[in-house]
Write a structure and sequence with these properties.
By secondary structure, the protein is α/β, with parallel strands linked by helices. The chain contains 26 helices and 15 strands. Helix 2 runs parallel beside helix 5.
Length: 646
C-alpha cells in the first residue's frame, strides 16, 4: 500500500488486464453531458500551452484482486463509470478517426460485467466497431447510445487532423488514473457500503463563501447581510424572497415583494438592520415564527406566540432550476467583471482568487460588496425571467412565472409578462425561446445563452417583454449564423459581450448552409431553432409541441438499412433534409428501419420534432424528397431571420 501505482491511459489500456464490474455495482449511468464534460476537460488541458506538458489526473480506480481458475482479474469497487467511459472514448477515437491517426495504441484491457450480459456484449461490439450495424436486441441500448454520443462530441471538438493527433497523443500519454488496491481480507460488500455512505465534504460554494466573508470581516453588518443574501440565493429551486423574513423582504423588495428597492450591499445591510430592530421591538407583544430565540428567552417570555400568516411558503419541490448554485455564481462573476471566465465550477474558488489577487485590500472589499449585491439582483432577475420546470397539480411543464402578493397576504405565482396561456402570448413565446436554448445545451459549462440572457436583464432598467423577445431572437440568429454555419465560428463570449447578441455574419451573408449537410455532426441547437421557427409559423402539431431533451440526430432514411440492397450513398443520407432530432431511446430502437416502418411507429407513439412531422407527411421518402426537404428547411432558417430583423 506504500506504492500506489498511477497509469497513463495508454499504459492502463495497453496492459493485458481484465476488469470486472461486480454484481453489487449500479448500472453504467453516465450520460451525454458527463461524456462531453470529460472530453472538454481533456481538450482544455491538451490545448493549453502550459498544461499540455503536465500529467492530468482524472481520478482513481479502487480495485480488489481476485483469482478464478488461475486467472487474475480486478474487481472494480469504485471508478467504473470513468473506466467504462474511457473504454468507449478510446474505441470511438480509433474507429471515427482511423484515417487521421498515424498510430494507435493497442487496447488490450478487457472490461466485463458480472451480471449484465448485454452490457458486456455491447463493449465487445464497440471493440470491433460494428455496434451500429449488428442486431441491437443483443446490446445494452444505453451503452450503444453513449458510444454514438462520444463519436458525435469528438467530431465537434476535433475538426482537423492536427487536432485529432494532438488530442489523442495527450490523452494516452498525459491523462492518468491512480489504481488503489484494497487488502485481500476486505469485506467488499461492507467496503462498498462505506464508500457510498461516507460523509459529504463542504460544497465548493461554501468554501468560497467563507473566503469572501473573510474580506468583509471588519464590518459585522456587511458580513451579516452578505451571508443572508448568499443563503437566500443558494436555494435555486426557491424564489429568493423566501430566503428573508417577512419584514426583511418587505423592505428589500418593497411591499409587494417584486421590486428590488436597494442598490448596494450597504443599503441592504441597513434595511436588514431596520427590519431586525422592528422585529425585536415587537417581541414584547408577540413572537412570530420567524423570530429566533434562545431557550432562556423562550422560557422567560410572557406574551403570546403567533404563527406568521404572511409567510406562505410554497412547497420547494414545485420548481426545478435549470442551473445549480455554484455555476450560477460564475455567471454573476462574468457579468460583474465582463471577462471571459469559464463556466466550469470545478475551479470556482480559483476564478475568484484570480480576481481578488489583482486588487488592493480596499478594492477587494469593494469587489466583494459589489458581488454580494449583484448576486441578489441577478437571482431576483433569474427567478422572474428565466424558465423553470414546474410540477403542479399533476402537470410537468416549463414555466415563466413571478411571485405575486395579493391584498389578503396570500402569495401566488403568475405569468411574468401576461396572463394569457395561448401560443400567441408574449410569455409563451419567450418561454419557448428560453426552452429551446436550454434543451440544446444540457451541460452547465455550455450554458452561454443563460449568461447572455442574465447579462441583458442585468443591464436593463425595466424589462420590456418585446425587447427581451427581440434580444433572444437575435441571440438565436447569432448562434446559427456566427457559430454553427460559420466557416470561422465566433466565440460565445464575443457573441454576447462584443457583438451584443447580434449576428454579424447574417448582415453580410457570410455563412455556409452546406455545413448543415454533415449528418450527426450538426449541432442540436440547429434542429431546436428550426422547430421553434416551425412552431412560430404554426406548423402541423405545433399547438401541442414542447421542447424536451432530445439528443440523438436521426437519419430518417437509415445509414445501415436492415436490407443491404436499400443502402444509399452517404452524401445523400447525411443531407439536412434527411435529419431530425429525436430521443436517443427511439433512435436506438429504430435506427436501421426504413422510413415507412418509422412512420408507422411514430404515428402511434407521436413524433419528437416538428421537422419530423413534415418529413412523415411524405408518402414515400426518396433521394429527391431528401434534397427538396433540405432546401426548404434551409430556406426557412434564412427567411425567418430576414423577417425578424434586429
Amino acid at each position: 500500500m506504500n506504492n500506489i501505482p498511477s497509469f497513463s491511459i495508454g499504459e492502463l489500456f495497453g496492459r493485458h488486464d481484465n476488469y470486472v464490474i461486480p454484481i453489487y455495482q449500479r448500472n453504467y449511468t453516465w450520460g451525454q453531458g458527463e461524456i462531453k464534460q470529460l472530453i472538454q476537460d481533456i481538450y482544455d488541458f491538451a490545448f493549453d500551452d502550459h498544461k499540455c506538458k503536465q500529467p492530468y489526473y482524472i481520478g482513481s480506480l479502487i480495485i480488489y484482486e481476485r483469482e478464478v481458475e488461475n486467472k487474475i482479474s480486478f474487481e472494480t469497487i469504485d471508478g467504473q463509470q470513468r473506466l467504462t467511459t474511457l473504454k468507449i472514448l478510446l474505441h470511438a477515437l480509433h474507429h471515427t478517426f482511423k484515417d487521421d491517426l498515424n498510430y494507435i495504441i493497442p487496447l488490450n484491457l478487457k472490461l466485463s460485467f458480472d451480471s449484465r450480459k448485454k452490457s458486456t456484449a455491447s463493449l465487445a461490439a464497440i471493440e470491433k466497431g460494428n455496434i451500429d450495424t449488428e442486431n441491437s436486441q443483443e446490446y445494452n441500448v444505453y451503452i450503444k447510445q453513449r458510444y454514438l454520443d462520444a463519436q458525435k462530441i469528438l467530431k465537434s471538438f476535433l475538426t482537423t487532423k492536427d487536432a485529432v493527433l494532438h488530442f489523442y497523443k495527450y490523452l494516452i500519454a498525459n491523462v492518468c488514473l491512480i489504481r488503489v488496491p484494497v487488502p485481500p481480507e476486505t469485506d467488499l460488500n461492507h467496503y462498498f457500503e462505506i464508500m457510498n455512505n461516507r460523509g459529504e465534504q463542504l460544497e465548493k460554494h461554501e468554501v468560497l463563501k467563507a473566503s469572501l466573508l473573510n474580506v468583509l470581516k471588519s464590518d459585522p453588518d456587511l458580513c451579516h447581510a452578505f451571508n443572508l443574501i448568499w443563503e437566500a440565493c443558494s436555494d435555486m429551486e426557491r424564489y429568493v424572497q423566501y430566503g428573508f423574513s417577512p419584514k426583511q423582504r418587505s423592505t428589500i423588495f418593497t411591499k409587494n415583494w417584486n421590486k428590488l428597492d436597494c442598490s448596494s450591499l450597504d443599503e441592504v445591510a441597513v434595511k436588514i438592520n431596520q427590519a431586525n430592530i422592528e422585529t425585536f421591538a415587537e417581541k414584547s407583544n408577540s413572537i412570530d415564527a420567524e423570530t429566533e430565540l434562545n431557550i432562556c428567552e423562550i422560557i422567560e417570555f410572557k406574551g403570546a406566540f403567533e404563527v406568521n400568516k404572511n409567510h406562505n411558503e410554497e412547497a420547494p419541490e414545485r420548481f426545478n432550476s435549470v442551473i445549480n448554485f455554484s455555476n450560477f455564481l460564475l455567471h454573476v462573476l462574468r457579468i460583474q467583471t465582463q471577462k471571459n471566465i469559464s463556466l466550469d465550477d470545478k475551479r470556482l474558488k480559483d476564478f475568484f482568487d484570480v480576481e481578488l489577487k489583482l486588487l488592493s485590500i480596499n478594492e477587494q472589499v469593494n469587489f466583494v460588496k459589489a458581488f454580494g449585491f449583484n448576486l441578489l439582483k441577478t437571482k431576483h432577475l433569474f427567478d422572474q425571467y428565466i424558465i423553470k420546470r414546474e410540477f403542479f397539480k399533476e402537470k410537468d411543464q416549463w414555466s415563466l412565472k413571478t411571485l405575486k402578493l395579493y391584498d389578503n397576504n396570500r402569495v401566488g405565482y403568475v405569468n411574468t409578462f401576461d396572463q394569457e396561456e395561448s401560443n400567441d402570448s408574449q410569455n409563451k413565446e419567450i418561454l419557448m425561446l428560453l426552452a429551446m436554448f436550454h434543451v440544446s445545451t444540457p451541460t452547465l459549462v455550455y450554458k452561454h445563452w443563460l449568461n447572455a440572457a442574465l447579462n441583458y436583464l442585468f443591464n436593463e432598467q425595466d424589462v420590456n417583454p418585446e425587447n427581451y423577445r427581440i434580444y433572444l431572437q437575435n441571440l438565436a440568429q447569432a448562434y446559427l449564423f456566427d457559430r454553427f454555419i460559420a466557416e470561422n465560428p465566433t466565440d460565445y463570449f464575443d457573441i454576447i459581450y462584443s457583438n451584443k447578441g447580434v449576428s454579424i455574419n447574417k448582415q453580410h451573408g457570410n455563412y455556409n448552409l452546406n455545413l448543415l449537410d454533415r449528418g450527426t455532426a450538426v449541432e442540436n441547437f440547429v434542429f431546436n431553432y428550426l422547430d421553434y421557427i416551425l412552431w412560430k409559423q404554426k406548423s402541423d402539431q405545433s399547438a401541442e409541441f414542447e421542447f424536451t431533451f432530445r439528443s440523438s440526430v436521426e437519419h430518417y432514411y437509415p445509414q445501415n438499412p436492415i436490407s443491404k440492397e436499400h443502402k444509399i450513398d452517404r452524401g445523400i443520407f447525411d443531407l439536412f433534409g434527411n435529419l431530425c432530432l429525436i430521443s436517443s431511446s427511439k433512435n436506438s430502437k429504430l435506427s436501421n428501419h426504413m422510413p415507412a416502418a418509422k412512420k408507422d411507429f411514430y404515428a402511434k407513439e407521436g413524433p419528437d420534432s416538428l421537422k419530423q412531422v413534415l418529413m412523415m407527411k411524405e408518402e414515400i421518402w426518396t433521394e429527391d424528397k431528401i434534397k427538396q426537404q433540405g432546401n426548404l428547411m434551409k430556406e426557412k432558417l434564412v427567411e425567418f431571420s430576414k423577417l425578424y430583423r434586429n
